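Researcher: Go.
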Amino acid sequence: MIETGTVPVGENLKIMADALVFLAQEHIEEGDRDKALELLTRVTIIAPLNKSAFFYRGLLFLDMGRKTDACLDLNMALINGETKALKALNYSCPEF
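Model: Structure:
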């Protein structure tokens, strides 16, 4: 269990980041894009190599019309190993 006020590391950090990404996906499905964006941004801060957070935030930015932010995030997702980001980059961000 992660105590309040502590900074998770190692496996605890991965578990927390994955849980936040999952929760963000649920908010996206429910139409709460602002909460999803907040959660995904939190993950990119605490776990900057989390490819899923950058991928889903990139898709969310595309949906919100924030193309530059979307392309940057999708590119970061690809750099971090998210192969699904390549298709979105090729389609929406040919300049990358």
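Model: The mean pLDDT is 92.
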